[in-house]
Amino acid sequence: MASLYTEIFGPLLLGALFNYLLFGCLIVQLYDYFMTYREKDRWFIKALVCVIVVAEIIQLVLMTHTIYTTIVLGFNTIEYLLHTPWSSSAAPAINGIISMLIQIFFAWRIWILKNDTVGNIITCLIVAISVLQCSSSIAVTVKYIQIGRAPTRFVELTMVGTLWLSGSLVCDTMISVVMVYLLKQSKKKASFKASEAMVNTLIINTIETGAITTIFALIELVFFLNNPENFFHICFLYILGRLFSNVLLAVLNGRDRVRRAGKMDGYIAHGSDSQDLDLSFRSFYRSQNSQQNGATLPLHDINRCMDRVGQTQADYVSGRNNFLDRSTKDLPL
């Protein structure tokens, strides 16, 4: 019995500990989001964040009930080894709903970036796969209740469980690949070096955030298919749902950082231009002094020209930054 107890509740406890850790990260990101974007973002983005947070709180409460009931109340008994608490069945459905909402949000981003026939087809395909994996996750919850919440009968969930996890994996992979492709296409059309730097940052962020959820979905699928009768895959199940929520808020909170990085890169890239022009003007002035034995333009004329050069550079930098603000204000970065 000790071996069975360890196989079931060991991974369950580890998954719960990582869940609490990721929920703490989510709260920090939620605070940053509402401090920065509570008046800037569109209402449906703020509504999405609120729904996700409420779902995470519900999941956390149910998971805590499962852990306390099985490990504390059921310590050294066989009852909860044969039938887990009622709260344990909710995790797949809640994870599926959270991931579907976030995947549809990313599909909306793709539709904004590529609003044409191909973009519409890709968006509809991602949404369809996302709804499919969500429906499969709910089916897993329903089926688990029907088999009496018995871990020893997990093998009966193989078909719907595989459909759920593979659908989530395919959806995450598609989102990452399409986003990177569209951003690379945008990079080719960038007019400013700062815009290129901003797109490069977005590409890196997209790969990093997409890789996190994709890798964990793949690991969970492998563990589930390898031995569905134990709880090793449940550890990654608890982690994966929290990763989706943290990725969403990381993307939303990172928008201003990306814009500021683009502007700073623009200042560095173009800040030397005015200095070079300044240097060239002064060198020209000195050379004229030496060649014409003092017969040079009046100093106030040179200063006036220098002021115009500086003003032109300032107008350029200001115009570029205004362009970045306009181009990213409504774009769902």
TrEMBL record:
Tagged with keyword Membrane: yes
Domain DUF6534: 168-256
Keywords associated with the record: Membrane, Transmembrane, Transmembrane helix
Domain of life, source organism: Eukaryota
Residues spanning the membrane: 12-31, 43-68, 88-108, 120-142, 162-182, 202-225, 231-254
Pfam families per UniProt: DUF6534
Presence of the UniProt keyword RNA-binding in the record: no
Record InterPro entries: DUF6534
PANTHER family noted in UniProt: CHROMOSOME 1, WHOLE GENOME SHOTGUN SEQUENCE (PTHR40465), DUF6534 DOMAIN-CONTAINING PROTEIN (PTHR40465:SF1)
Protein name as annotated: DUF6534 domain-containing protein
